[in-house]
Design the sequence.
């Protein structure tokens, strides 16, 4: 209403009226009126004189109006008024014998997209601001602002881009695309908890935008940029030692994190047991992490969400990137299929990690077998196509295929006087993800955005083991003793569809709602074995030939519906409230999970602010395994009547300050995990050996409780060419299972009381910078025996050492700490850019314990052996863009 | 037993950590030496208790046997018997009662050694829960001839409880088969002698997931097995023999009804894992107050089922 009346010249017309009509109300009287080719102002003056009603108005209202000709008989005053002022779209208000005209308030929607000026890539989390209003682009680069008609200075900004300001006259709905030019002069951000979108003011505390493009500056093992390692630099986020074991967010299990790649769940986010993530840095556009307080549109996991979006591909030029590192190499090609209309992005990455393993294993002969021949590699392939049908309609196709391949062949020989027996083992294991999504963005109205997705996700693991046993007699005759084959498989496969709507009725309110349906298929684990012996193929013992154990395939239906509102009110308040309702059906059992979520924030994005929230989450899928690191052959299984869904609730609150380059945040949380699951170890082997990984899994799952609470501190200071970041978390995380530890509470395996990360980035020159990152964490708790005794069989034949484990996770490993250093250089022109990183991971060669192994040996000389995964590792990566 | 895929992954991890292996001195809390008592007793037999002293993890050599131990049994708070020490022909030392175990009687064990904390424990031998039957499904028996001429007989068994167990559902079994050997005299087989061997067996996945090998040479059945009114174990006994001079004769089943102390102890032993690094062991169940070990009773019934002579 700001420009409604003032800054104008008011013309007051006062006229003495005939006394005969003074007693009549102008509302009801009828007038004759004639005015030919009058300006509206003159016509109003004439009407005022004739009617005796004071008419107040601004002559500027009629600046663009043509003269009017009005000739009426016996018409009401208000009809006359309308005919005179019709071109100006005015409204009026009656006073005592007075009418005040004012311009009708007209609202228009400024909506559209923000994109990279060079590549046409849509920018996620970009800020669009006017003097009093603002919006943030969504995950498709879309924004919507509803403003009164008028002229505005619109400033568009995004991290890493030069801000752009435009003056716009908004006299109708406008659909615009803003283009921002990359700003290479800005200091590169390395690690930050600062949200990119500051306007909404609801992105502090448990939410982090991960500036993934900047990971090229972070020291990583082998120089391989890694999203999960970057996530682990956020407070409250841990991995196992040196990145193994998946992510553990605020005391949660590794399977309690939802990894989304272009909106599709990724069941195995890691390669090489966790050393590298499946997110190829060359294709990642944005990544966002929520630590338990995620909005209602996300569901299916109880601890966190990592939402990763890939780039669309250059819409204008063909570009290529080739990157070579110590362990892996990648190549990316992108470009327009039709300029500014459709594009593609194709990227591949593979590793040459295997020879390293083989070299070390041969050199140190740890495996003690002869003829070891280990081969390992992983690969990722991404393809993305998109087509712009119109400003309102766009289609995306994303495909990802990635996996790990492991081969090992080794030989054991046993000599005696009669000859030599040889066992030759060959193991081939493969595992990986296949992911596809087809998404259609459609702008229904300028403030109503829709996205419909069809998606597919599949994770499989399979392992083939063969054993060939031969005996070479002293006389030189070779006999085939056994030929054994074993195939183990586990699989989870999803087909799903979802549709989401975002509605921006006002600048202070965003409504989202949507529904989704997923059809799951599980094969929790199947083992088939074959014995093959000479002369009969395939035959040895019929009962064991082609035995297939636990070949059950389970289907399940999962449905989701959600609604959420993001409301800012009173300038300083922001409320984010949502509700998610999920259902899961398996074996004719239906489970339902209502999940309310709310978050309230007070304060400005700069200066002081505080927030608090309550979030409830549920999980119907579970990954179970016997080991305390996340391994690919661990099983994804559904909730069933005997394995109830996991639930969690979290309350959190914090306070933050951001000004003058300082960003300080403190947040506390208290989180309860209900019916958290664990897989009970077993020694069942009997005749089939190895089958226990999958068999009877429902009977081997124990449900318990988890409790975790803590406080997290982020202090970040940005100087002219220096960035210092300190992240500290104090936390306590416990578990309690009736079937473990005699029912007593015990520390979670990733319970770390103190977790400190300090990062310093110093820009040395416009083309070079150095990054130092120091990490310290309390040692992980482990279960170790304190004593032993001997247990004899009844006849005394066999003695067994019994290790007295008095408390689960009752012992702590030594603290973990390391220093990483990286020197980054960038040179070249736009058409040929070079990036080089040289660095050292674990610079002072700290032997951090990966695990301790009590080697009982023969049972009489027990000793502990500490294994370290990554000592000092040099890193190197060279990237060429052209 | 064939290695699992996990084993190979761990080998890979070990390969990765080449040169990064260190022996470390464990800074474990200094746990004082305590008395260890181990006894699994059953109805109609004397109680035998093995007594030793606990060892530090890094101790080498055999555990110390405290020959001066004072081992006694009480029932209902009344002294019953002072056990006497026995060293058998194999050199195994244990303390044995004069009284024989009675069903349902709660025995209290006390072991005293000068300078060490006295230990106490309580258990009983439960009333045996009988089997309704041990059946052989002869129609499903499969005989396979191996290339060397030996044969393997797969014998489907149903081990059925008389009724679905209520309350304590702690059971174990031992599966054996008896082989008859014979000589050929004048072209006719003449039985010579019999011998028993422990049988390997197959089962479906759920069953295999719920049974555990124990050092007692019996197979523990998880109490969860009996959910859903399940009262029958389905197993396929594997019986190898040489047809030239052997013939399978019968299947033998020892069916044990366990005290909870027996069950919990052996279950926790099984859950200590298979000594693979990164595997989380469970805490050891201990019903010895002031010490370690296990004092627990069980009852046992024997069943025999003939294998049809056609083989």
Sequence:
């Amino acid at each position: 209403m700001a420009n409604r009346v003032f800054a104008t010249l008011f013309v007051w017309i006062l006229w003495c009226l005939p006394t005969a009509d003074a007693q009549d109300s102008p509302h009801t009287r009828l007038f004759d009126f004639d005015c030919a080719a009058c300006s509206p102002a003159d016509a109003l003056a004439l009407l005022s004189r004739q009617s005796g009603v004071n008419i107040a108005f601004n002559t500027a209202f009629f600046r663009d109006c043509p003269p009017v000709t009005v000739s009426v008989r016996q018409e009401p005053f208000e009809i006359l008024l309308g005919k005179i002022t019709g071109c100006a779209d005015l409204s009026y208000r009656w006073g005592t014998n007075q009418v005040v005209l004012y311009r009708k308030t007209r609202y228009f929607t400024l909506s559209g997209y923000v994109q990279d000026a060079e590549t046409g890539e849509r920018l996620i989390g970009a800020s669009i601001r006017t003097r009093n209003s603002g919006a943030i682009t969504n995950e498709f680069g879309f924004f919507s602002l509803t403003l009164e008609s008028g002229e505005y200075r619109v400033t568009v900004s995004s991290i890493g881009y030069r801000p752009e300001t435009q003056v716009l006259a908004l006299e109708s709905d406008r659909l615009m695309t803003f283009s921002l030019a990359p700003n290479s002069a800005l200091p590169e951000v390395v690690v930050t908890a600062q949200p990119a979108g500051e306007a909404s003011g609801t992105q502090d505390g448990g939410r982090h935008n991960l500036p993934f493009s900047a990971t090229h500056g972070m020291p990583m093992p082998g120089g391989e940029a890694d999203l999960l390692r970057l996530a682990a630099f956020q407070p409250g986020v841990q991995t196992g030692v040196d990145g193994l074991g998946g992510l553990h967010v605020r005391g949660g299990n590794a399977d309690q994190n939802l990894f989304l790649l272009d909106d599709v769940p990724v069941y195995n986010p890691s390669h090489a047991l966790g050393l590298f993530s499946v997110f190829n840095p060359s294709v990642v556009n944005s990544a966002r992490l929520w630590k338990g307080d995620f909005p209602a549109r996300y569901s299916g996991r109880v601890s966190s969400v990592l939402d990763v979006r890939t780039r669309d591909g250059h819409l204008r030029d063909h570009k290529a990137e080739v990157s070579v590192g110590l362990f892996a190499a990648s190549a990316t090609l992108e470009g327009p299929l039709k300029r500014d209309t459709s594009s593609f992005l194709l990227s591949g990455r593979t590793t040459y990690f295997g020879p390293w393993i083989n070299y070390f294993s041969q050199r140190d002969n740890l495996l003690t077998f002869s003829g070891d021949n280990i081969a390992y590699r992983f690969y990722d392939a991404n393809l993305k196509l998109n087509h712009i049908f119109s400003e309102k309609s766009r289609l995306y196709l994303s495909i990802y295929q990635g996996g790990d391949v492991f081969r090992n062949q080794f030989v054991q020989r046993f000599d005696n006087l009669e000859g030599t027996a040889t066992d030759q083992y060959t193991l081939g294991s493969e595992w990986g993800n296949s992911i596809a999504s087809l998404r259609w963005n459609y702008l229904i109205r300028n403030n109503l955005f829709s996205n419909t997705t069809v998606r597919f996700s599949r994770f499989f693991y399979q392992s083939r083991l063969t054993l060939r046993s031969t005996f070479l007699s002293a006389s030189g005759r070779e006999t085939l003793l056994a030929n054994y084959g074993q195939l183990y498989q586990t699989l989870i496969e999803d087909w799903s569809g979802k549709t989401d709507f975002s509605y921006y009725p006002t600048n202070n309110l965003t409504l989202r709602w949507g529904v989704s349906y997923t059809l799951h298929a599980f094969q929790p684990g199947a083992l088939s074995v074959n014995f093959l012996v000479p002369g009969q193929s395939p035959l040895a013992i019929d009962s064991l030939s082609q035995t297939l154990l636990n070949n059950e395939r389970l289907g399940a239906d999962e449905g989701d519906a959600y609604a959420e509102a993001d409301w800012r009110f009173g300038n300083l308040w922001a409320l984010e409230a949502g509700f998610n309702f999920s259902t899961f059906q398996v074996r004719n059992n239906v489970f339902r999970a209502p999940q309310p979520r709310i978050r309230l924030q007070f304060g400005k994005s700069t200066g002081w602010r505080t927030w608090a929230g309550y979030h409830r989450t549920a999980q119907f899928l579970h990954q179970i395994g016997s080991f305390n690191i996340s391994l690919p052959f661990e099983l994804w299984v559904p909730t069933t009547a005997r394995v109830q869904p996991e639930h969690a609730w979290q309350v959190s609150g914090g306070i933050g300050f951001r000004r003058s380059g300082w960003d300080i945040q403190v947040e506390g949380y208290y989180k309860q995990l209900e019916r958290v699951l664990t897989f009970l170890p077993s020694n069942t082997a009997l005749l089939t050996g190895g089958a226990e990984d999958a068999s009877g899994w429902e009977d081997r799952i124990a449900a318990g409780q988890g409790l975790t609470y803590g406080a997290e501190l982020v202090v970040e200071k940005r100087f002219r060419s220096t960035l210092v970041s300190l992240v500290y978390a104090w936390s306590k995380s416990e578990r309690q299972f009736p079937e473990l530890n005699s029912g007593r509470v015990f520390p979670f395996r990733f319970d770390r009381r103190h977790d400190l990360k300090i990062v310093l980035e110093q820009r040395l020159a416009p083309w070079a910078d150095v990054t130092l990152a120091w990490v310290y964490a309390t040692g992980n708790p482990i279960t170790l025996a304190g004593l032993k005794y001997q247990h004899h069989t009844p006849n005394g034949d066999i003695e067994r050492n019994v290790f007295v484990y008095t408390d689960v996770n009752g012992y702590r490993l030594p603290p973990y700490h390391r220093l990483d250093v990286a020197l980054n250089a960038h040179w070249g022109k736009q058409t040929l850019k070079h990036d080089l990183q040289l660095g050292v991971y674990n610079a002072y060669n700290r032997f951090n314990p990966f695990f301790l192994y009590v080697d009982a040996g023969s049972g009489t000389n027990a000793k502990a052996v500490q294994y370290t995964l990554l000592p000092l590792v040099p890193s190197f990566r060279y990237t060429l863009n052209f | 037993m064939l290695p699992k895929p996990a084993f190979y992954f761990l080998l890979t991890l070990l390969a990765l950590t080449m040169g990064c292996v260190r022996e470390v001195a464990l800074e474990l809390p200094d746990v004082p030496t305590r008395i260890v008592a181990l006894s699994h007793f059953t109805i109609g037999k004397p109680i035998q208790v093995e007594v030793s002293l606990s060892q530090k993890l890094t101790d080498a050599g055999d555990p110390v046997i405290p020959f001066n131990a004072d081992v006694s049994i009480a029932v209902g708070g009344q002294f019953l018997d002072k056990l006497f020490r026995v060293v058998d022909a194999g050199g195994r030392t244990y303390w044995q009662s004069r009284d024989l175990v009675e069903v349902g009687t709660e025995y209290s064990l006390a072991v005293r050694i000068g300078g060490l904390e006295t230990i106490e424990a309580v258990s009983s031998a439960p009333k045996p829960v009988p089997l309704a039957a041990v059946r052989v499904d002869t129609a499903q028996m499969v005989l396979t001839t191996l290339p060397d001429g030996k044969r393997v007989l797969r014998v489907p068994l149903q081990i059925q409880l008389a009724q679905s167990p209520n309350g304590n559902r702690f059971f174990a079994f031992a599966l054996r088969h008896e082989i008859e050997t014979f000589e050929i005299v004048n072209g006719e087989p003449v039985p010579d002698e019999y011998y028993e061997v422990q049988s390997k067996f197959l089962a479906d996945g759920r069953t295999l997931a719920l049974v555990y090998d124990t050092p007692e040479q019996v197979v523990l059945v998880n109490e969860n097995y009996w959910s859903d009114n399940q009262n029958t174990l389905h197993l396929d006994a594997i019986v190898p023999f040489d047809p030239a001079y052997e013939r399978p004769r019968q299947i033998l089943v020892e069916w044990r009804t366990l005290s909870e102390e027996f069950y919990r102890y052996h279950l926790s032993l099984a859950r200590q894992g298979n000594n693979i690094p990164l595997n989380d062991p469970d805490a050891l169940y201990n019903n010895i107050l002031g010490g370690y070990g296990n004092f627990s009773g069980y009852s046992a019934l024997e069943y025999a089922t003939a294998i049809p002579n056609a083989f």
